[in-house]
Amino acid sequence: MSARDGIFAGEDPFLIARAWLAEAEASEPNDANAIALATVDADGMPDARMVLLKDIESFGDGQGAFVFYTNYDSAKGRQISATGKAAFVMHWKSLRRQIRVRGTVTREDGPIADDYFASRALQSRIGAWASAQSRPVASRAALMVEVARQGAKWGVNPPRPPFWGGFRIDPVQIEFWSDGAFRLHDRFQWVKHVRSGSGDQPGSTVWNVERLSP
């Protein structure tokens, strides 16, 4: 394989990631947008869990982000809020590919989050209000009682809870990985550099790309 042809071709890593995800959606049996999200707690102890990636944003000029939604008071929400950093792996067994991302994180808790919350199934919206995510709960029955209570309170159009919204991962590093024969995999690492602007001119984003040994 020559330098970044085929599935690795392109100058915008977010568009490459979108293309890989679109291909996986046709071949992966379940949740092609699942990511293994890694964070650290206040003691530096790592933590990981599966979440669903809901958007790959591409703004042009090498800028973009990866967006998912959760309860801000969950374990991952508290850890991200404390550090402002996260990483994830998106792996597709059907394609034998993966994408690894590391970056800084900001909240998405405005109109975009409102629109996404409104698009969810009603029971999922009620469930968001009812669940104190990652906190102890007495029993399944107690959870369902709270679901019923919140359903009666909010009816058919519950608003987005103030403790629930999006996180936007702004990557500093992205790696595209594809399985190769005899474990001679193809790996391309993108590392972001932001050039400072001058005067009224904003800075620009530049991605340096290099092939990594398998």
UniProtKB/TrEMBL annotation:
Ranges for domain Pyridoxamine 5'-phosphate oxidase N-terminal: 28-149
Skewed-composition ranges (Polar residues): 198-207
The protein's Enzyme Commission number: 1.4.3.5
Family to which this protein belongs: Belongs to the pyridoxamine 5'-phosphate oxidase family.
Domain Pyridoxine 5'-phosphate oxidase dimerisation C-terminal: 164-214
Pathway noted in the entry: Cofactor metabolism; pyridoxal 5'-phosphate salvage; pyridoxal 5'-phosphate from pyridoxamine 5'-phosphate: step 1/1; Cofactor metabolism; pyridoxal 5'-phosphate salvage; pyridoxal 5'-phosphate from pyridoxine 5'-phosphate: step 1/1
UniProt xrefs under SUPFAM superfamilies: FMN-binding split barrel
Residues that hold substrate according to the record: K54, Y116, R120, S124, R183, L184, H185
Name by which UniProt lists this protein: Pyridoxine/pyridoxamine 5'-phosphate oxidase
Residues that bind FMN: R49, M50, V51, L52, L53, K54, Y69, T70, K76, Q98, Q133, S134, W177, R187
Keywords assigned by UniProt, alphabetized: Flavoprotein, FMN, Oxidoreductase, Pyridoxine biosynthesis
The reaction(s) this protein catalyses: pyridoxamine 5'-phosphate + O2 + H2O = pyridoxal 5'-phosphate + H2O2 + NH4(+); pyridoxine 5'-phosphate + O2 = pyridoxal 5'-phosphate + H2O2
Enzyme class: oxidoreductase
Biological process according to GO: pyridoxine biosynthetic process
Region ranges (Disordered): 195-214
GO molecular function per UniProt: FMN binding; pyridoxamine phosphate oxidase activity
Quaternary structure and partners: Homodimer.
